[in-house]
Amino acid sequence: MSTHSSTQRASIQLSRRSLLKLGVGASAVLATAGLTATLSGCSSDAPASGFQVLRDSDIPMLKAIMKTLVGPHPALNPANLDAAIAQLDKTLAWTSTAAQKQVSDLFGLLSMGVTRGPLTGIWGSWENASDAEVRAFLERWRDSRLDMLRQGHSALNQALQMAWYALPVSWEATGYPGPPAI
């Protein structure tokens, strides 16, 4: 029994060590990618034209994810998708600078090619990602053992769903009359 116990502890320690190595390696890769993007000018903090917070690089990623999250909604079309992205930007503009930075960091990781592939499994551009690929990425993050990925999924899900259902067109198409007039 003591041999089995020490063998089990050794494998647990090895797993912990491997996890720590993976964490350090991933941190180094993300830091290098962020530094490279910043130095090369790939990462712009300037909002896209007509937006207050969202950047040009965020928009294709947000559209791909929102289409998958909303699913086969009768009102989902390109114009309403654009309106929902604009609603998200408006909502983000009213949040604190710290919250905007956190959201921008998350969107940046998902938008930048160097980090998008390893983090999401989507190795090409967001415009070419299929609904199945986006769904697989979202499910992987939702069910991850890593709390950081689960939190990222929750933040994406909540922000994009709120932006979509803030639009009256999303209510009308499903027969919801909207909130009661006050």
TrEMBL record:
InterPro entries: TAT_signal (IPR006311). PROSITE patterns: TAT. This is Twin-arginine translocation pathway signal protein. It comes from Halopseudomonas laoshanensis. The lineage of its organism: Bacteria, Pseudomonadati, Pseudomonadota, Gammaproteobacteria, Pseudomonadales.
